[in-house]
Design goal:
The chain is α/β, with parallel strands linked by helices and about 350 residues long. Helix content is about 25%, strand content about 25%. Bound molecules: NADP nicotinamide-adenine-dinucleotide phosphate and zinc ion (ZN).
Length: about 350
C-alpha cells in the first residue's frame, strides 16, 4: 500500500480538506503515476455536494488526470517510468459484455463500471475509488491513456472528460463539413464542443446565457453566437440545425432547442442536472421527426483517438490553473458560469 495525500469532501456542505488514504501497490498490469494536473468538472461539484444520489464520504473527486509515471507492472506495455499517462472517468469495467468488447465500456451491459471516484474499489474491498485530487494514482493499463509531450499537460487534462464527452457525440451523430451544429453553454464541456465542431468543419453556433462570452466563443471557433434569452435571435434559427449539443448543468426548457432542429435533427443532452428538465413537447418532435438523445463520455479506444486527433490538430482546453486550496472558490465560480473555460488544479500545490 502506498500512502497518498488527497483533498476530500467530508460531507455535502463543508469545504474540501486534506485527506490521507492508501492506494494499492501496482500489480502486473498497473501503471502508477504522480498526478501533475487534474481538471475540475461540474460532475465533481454535483458529486461532492451530494446533488446526484450515492455520494459516499469522504469523497476524493477528479477525473481529468494527467501525470508522470513512477512505476509499471511487468505486463505493462506502452507506458514507461518517466513518461506521461492520463486517466479519465473510468478505471475498470467488466470487459466481457458486448458493450465493453465494442470499446464502449461506459455503456457496459452489466453496469459493472468502476468510476475513477466514488465507486466500490475492486482491489480494496470496503473502500471507494478516490480520484485525481490527489498526489498519485494506480490504474490498470487498459484504462490509461497516452498523451503527447508536445502539448501542455495542464491544458490536456480536461480532454479526459470535457474533451471526450463532446468529441464522441459529435462523431456519433455525423458532424462534418456542411452540417450546422449548435452548442449550448460555454463552460468546460461547451468550449470543447465548439472547438471540435469547428475542427470537424461544421457551421458552429454557440448558445449562451452570458453576453460577455461572445467574443471568446468566436475565438474558440464559433461562426455565430446566439443569446438564448433573446427570443428573436433564437427564432431566426428555427428548423435549421442538424445537431445541437446541450451541456447545461441545470434544468431548462428543451423545446427552445428542439424547435431549432431541422427534419430528423437531434438534440443531444450531455449536461446532467440533478433535477429533471421540464417535459419537452411531443408536438415539436413529431412534427419534424426530431430526436432528443443523450451521450455519456466515450470509450477508451475513442478517448485515445480523440487525444491523438488533438495532438495532430494542436487542440487543447483553455484553462485557468489553480492551487488545490482554491477548489471551493472554483466551484462557486463554476455555479456562476464564471469559468474560462476549465479550472485545472496544479497538484504541486497539494504538497
Ligand atoms: P460548466 O463548466 O459549469 O458549464 C456549464 C455551462 O452551462 C455554463 O458555463 C453556462 O454557460 C451554462 N449555464 C449555466 N447556468 C445556466 C442556466 N441557468 N441556463 C442556461 N445555461 C446555463 O459545466 P461542465 O463541466 O461543462 O458540465 C456541464 C454538465 O455536463 C454538468 O451537468 C456535468 O455533470 C455534465 N457532464 C456530463 C458528462 C457526460 O458524460 N454526459 C460528462 C461530463 C460532465 P453560458 O454562460 O455560456 O450560458
Ligand atoms: Zn467530468
Amino acid at each position: 500500500m502506498s500512502n497518498t495525500l488527497g483533498f476530500a469532501a467530508f460531507d455535502a456542505t463543508s469545504p474540501l480538506a486534506p485527506f490521507r488514504f492508501d492506494r494499492r501497490e501496482p500489480g502486473p498490469n498497473d501503471v502508477q503515476f504522480d498526478v501533475l494536473f487534474c481538471g475540475v468538472c461540474h460532475s465533481d461539484l454535483h458529486t461532492v455536494r451530494g446533488e446526484w444520489a450515492g455520494t459516499v464520504y469522504p469523497c476524493v473527486a477528479g477525473h481529468e488526470i494527467v501525470g508522470r509515471v513512477t512505476k509499471v507492472g511487468r505486463e505493462v506495455t506502452g507506458f514507461a517510468v518517466g513518461g506521461l499517462a492520463a486517466v479519465g472517468c473510468m478505471v475498470d469495467s467488466c470487459g466481457g459484455c458486448p458493450g465493453c468488447r465494442a470499446g464502449l465500456e461506459q455503456y457496459c451491459d452489466r453496469g459493472d463500471i468502476t468510476w475513477t471516484y466514488n465507486s466500490p474499489d475492486k482491489h480494496l474491498p470496503g473502500q471507494r475509488t478516490f480520484g485525481g485530487y490527489s498526489s498519485q494514482i494506480v490504474v490498470d493499463q487498459r484504462f490509461c491513456l497516452r498523451v503527447s509531450e508536445r502539448l501542455s499537460p495542464a491544458a490536456v487534462a480536461p480532454l479526459l472528460c470535457a474533451g471526450i464527452t463532446t468529441y464522441s457525440p459529435l462523431r456519433h451523430w455525423g458532424v462534418t463539413a456542411g452540417k450546422k451544429v449548435g452548442v449550448v453553454g460555454l463552460g468546460g464541456l461547451g468550449h470543447m464542443g465548439v472547438k471540435f465542431a469547428h475542427a470537424f468543419g461544421a457551421h458552429t453556433v454557440l448558445f449562451t446565457t452570458s453576453p460577455g462570452k461572445a467574443e471568446d466563443a468566436r475565438r474558440l471557433g464559433a461562426d455565430e453566437v446566439v443569446l438564448s434569452k433573446d427570443a428573436n435571435a433564437m427564432a431566426a434559427h428555427a428548423g435549421s440545425f442538424d445537431v445541437i449539443l446541450d451541456t447545461v448543468a441545470v434544468p431548462h426548457d428543451l423545446d427552445a432547442y428542439t424547435s431549432l432542429l431541422r427534419r430528423d435533427g437531434t438534440l443531444v443532452l450531455v449536461g446532467a442536472p440533478a433535477l429533471p428538465h421540464p417535459s419537452p413537447s411531443a408536438g415539436s418532435l413529431i412534427g419534424k421527426r426530431r430526436s432528443i438523445a443523450g451521450s455519456l463520455i466515450g470509450g477508451i479506444r475513442e478517448t485515445q483517438e480523440m487525444l491523438d486527433f488533438c495532438e495532430e490538430k494542436g487542440i487543447v482546453s483553455d484553462v485557468e490553473v489553480i492551487p488545490m486550496q482554491l477548489i471551493d472558490e472554483a466551484y462557486e465560480r463554476m455555479l456562476r458560469g464564471d469559468v474560462k473555460y476549465r479550472f485545472v488544479i496544479d497538484m504541486a500545490s497539494l504538497k
